[in-house]
């Protein structure tokens, strides 16, 4: 079955202001889909479609009902997600409120349309203005495809069973994406349910039908040939850590809608311990324990601002080059805040230094390593 070609629909626009929602329709079909940039300064409270209320119940935190806080409210926003996907319309949400926002509900639309959520807590033009402009500028300029349909095909022995990302699915084979760009990844879970041949290997094809920003309908096909091996050492050598972390993060994100956060953390730790125990048992040679850690890098004394001074020195040029490179690599820009010793903001800075115990009852890094090590030893007994 080939990927279908959809007729260009009438394009619907949505504008969201502080307390009201305004809708209007174009009566003339547009040649291509589009992208919405929505700017919000407060939770929608007017008596109109999309009205939300404060659901922030502190009593539910760390209980079995905490997961209800992460569930989006059913109704208007859920239908809006479906409508946007059907029309190839991506939604980006920029939030500036310092008060409660039901991001679980409002962010559900960007999550299913290949968009993004940008939140600027306690927004101040003087300190956050450039941060916001960098995000907006990069979002507008990056290449993007609209109204996409993706299908993954595999050779005999394994098959695609689940998909994670800004996708919507009406069936088990066609992955619908309102938009796709360089900052979003689609994670595919493959189930191995038959014997794979080490001689012929395994084959995978990913076909993506999409519309360019200029309105051209294009088909992009990726073919991948995979080697098969019964040796675990070869498996661990070929393993991509980034892909694993991406997969575990997305499965955990989905799991918190059904399980308490404590259970999700335990599952992640157990999965990690099992993988490391398998490596230790079948692949690693005995070795002495090594210490993990290193000294913290101290901040240089610079003036209470969010822009590095351009000094004519090797150290200044090197630091600015590092920060510039990080800004370009990340999909979202990072707010730069320079804090010097004995500054007023040093107290705030210290709150982010966690050594003994983590936030919300989590373990420190060294405690976490020791815990995983004990779990591995238990599994090996």
TrEMBL record:
Keywords of the record, alphabetical order, are:
Cytoplasmic vesicle
Sec23/Sec24 helical domain segment(s):
241-292
Q: Which residues form the Sec23/Sec24 beta-sandwich domain?
A: 145-229
Q: Enumerate the Pfam families for this protein.
A: Sec23_BS (PF08033), Sec23_helical (PF04815), Sec23_trunk (PF04811)
Query: Its Gene Ontology molecular function terms?
Result: SNARE binding; zinc ion binding
Q: Its principal location?
A: membrane
- Record's bilayer topology term: Peripheral membrane protein
Q: Which InterPro entries match?
A: ADF-H/Gelsolin-like_dom_sf, Beta-sandwich_Sec23_24, Gelsolin-like_dom_sf, Sec23/24_helical_dom, Sec23/24_helical_dom_sf, Sec23/24_trunk_dom, SEC23_SEC24_subfamily, vWFA_dom_sf
Occurrences of domain Sec23/Sec24 trunk (ranges): 32-140
Q: Which organism is it from?
A: Gadus morhua
Full protein name: SEC24 homolog D, COPII coat complex component
- Identify the GO cellular component terms for this protein: COPII vesicle coat; endoplasmic reticulum exit site
Top-rank taxon, per record: Eukaryota
């Amino acid at each position: 079955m080939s990927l279908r070609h959809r007729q260009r629909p009438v394009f619907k626009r949505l504008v969201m202001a502080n307390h009201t929602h305004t809708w209007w329709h174009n009566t003339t079909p547009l040649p291509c889909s589009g992208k919405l940039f929505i700017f919000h300064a407060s939770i929608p409270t007017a008596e109109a479609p999309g009205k939300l209320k404060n659901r922030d119940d502190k009593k539910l935190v760390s209980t079995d009902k905490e997961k209800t806080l992460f569930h989006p409210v059913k109704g208007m926003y859920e239908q809006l997600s479906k409508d946007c996907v059907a029309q190839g319309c991506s939604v980006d949400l920029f939030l500036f409120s310092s008060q409660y926002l039901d991001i679980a509900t409002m962010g559900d639309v960007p999550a299913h349309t290949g968009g993004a959520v940008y939140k600027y807590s306690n927004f101040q033009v003087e300190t956050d203005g450039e941060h916001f402009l960098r995000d907006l500028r990069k979002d507008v300029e990056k290449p993007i495809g609209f109204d996409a349909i993706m299908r993954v095909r595999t050779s005999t022995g394994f098959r695609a069973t689940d998909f994670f990302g800004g996708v919507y699915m009406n069936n088990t084979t066609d992955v619908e994406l309102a938009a796709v760009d360089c900052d979003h990844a689609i994670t595919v879970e493959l189930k191995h349910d038959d014997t794979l041949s080490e001689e012929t290997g395994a084959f995978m094809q990913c076909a993506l039908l999409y519309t360019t920003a200029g309105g051209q309908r294009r088909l992009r096909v990726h073919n991948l040939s995979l080697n098969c091996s019964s040796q675990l050492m070869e498996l661990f050598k070929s393993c991509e850590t980034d892909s694993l972390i991406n997969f575990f993060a997305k499965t955990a994100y989905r799991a918190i809608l059904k399980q308490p956060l404590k259970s999700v953390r335990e599952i992640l730790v157990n999965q990690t311990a099992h993988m490391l125990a398998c490596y230790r048992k079948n692949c690693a040679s005995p070795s002495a324990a090594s210490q993990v850690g290193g000294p913290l890098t101290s901040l240089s004394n610079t003036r209470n601002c969010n822009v590095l001074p351009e000094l004519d020195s090797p150290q200044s040029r090197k630091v600015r080059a590092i920060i510039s490179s990080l800004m370009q690599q990340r999909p979202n820009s990072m707010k730069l805040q320079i804090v010097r010793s004995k500054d007023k903001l040093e107290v705030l800075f210290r709150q982010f230094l966690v050594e003994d115990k983590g936030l919300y009852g989590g373990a420190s890094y060294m405690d976490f390593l020791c815990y995983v090590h004990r779990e591995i030893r238990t599994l090996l007994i």
